[in-house]
Amino acid sequence: MLYLLLSLSFFFALDQEKHFYYFMEWIYTFFLFHGVFLYYFILL
């Protein structure tokens, strides 16, 4: 997972201004998706 994040950050650093927004959006959706699952399992 850490290697994936490093490779993604290196790729997005090549064209920072355009890809940084997509990177932050990916992180946001990633944590939102896992947050929903964690919240669901905590309720169970």
From TrEMBL:
UniProtKB keywords: Membrane, Transmembrane, Transmembrane helix
Transmembrane segments: 26-43
Protein name listed in UniProt: Transmembrane protein
Species, as recorded: Bacteroides fragilis
